[in-house]
Specification:
seven-stranded mixed β-sheet, 32% helix
Length: 173
Amino acid sequence: MQIVRCRYEVHGDAVQQIFNFAIANTTALYEYLPRDKQRIAQWFAAKEQGNWPIIAAVDEQQQLLGFASYGPFRGFPANKYSVEHSVYVAPEHYGKGIATRLMQHLLELAQAQQFHAMVGAIDADNAASIALHEKLGFRHSGTLPQVAFKFGRWLDLAFYQLLLPTPSVPTDD
């Protein structure tokens, strides 16, 4: 397995398939409808425009196994050192350590970009994602009960946070 930059031209279709599997079958995304190609292209373009990374785990044949990214947390100027991240793995590759490798690389990128707080918003019943985050040092920082309704039931949203030793010199500006 190799970690590479995820690009729409190369990985867009596989990213769309992974997103749409998660939408249709899990509570990892609080969405009801599949994402079309235009929405995937817009997602990639927004990440590129904001200088937000999208990384991919690929196999020896360069097939996408999973991907991860982060972007702004809340979007207010004073939140400039905080990011919200996400990580997704193709269902046929669950449990193989791919999410861990992606997250470790994402943490390195966040430190290189001088971010201080990484936040994961995780469905409170997603034990695998919670275990992954706790293994990487993330701490539970709160749960919002019943903020979503999917698959005929109310869903609680848990926040997990990791503080990084960066930035070296934070500033107000």
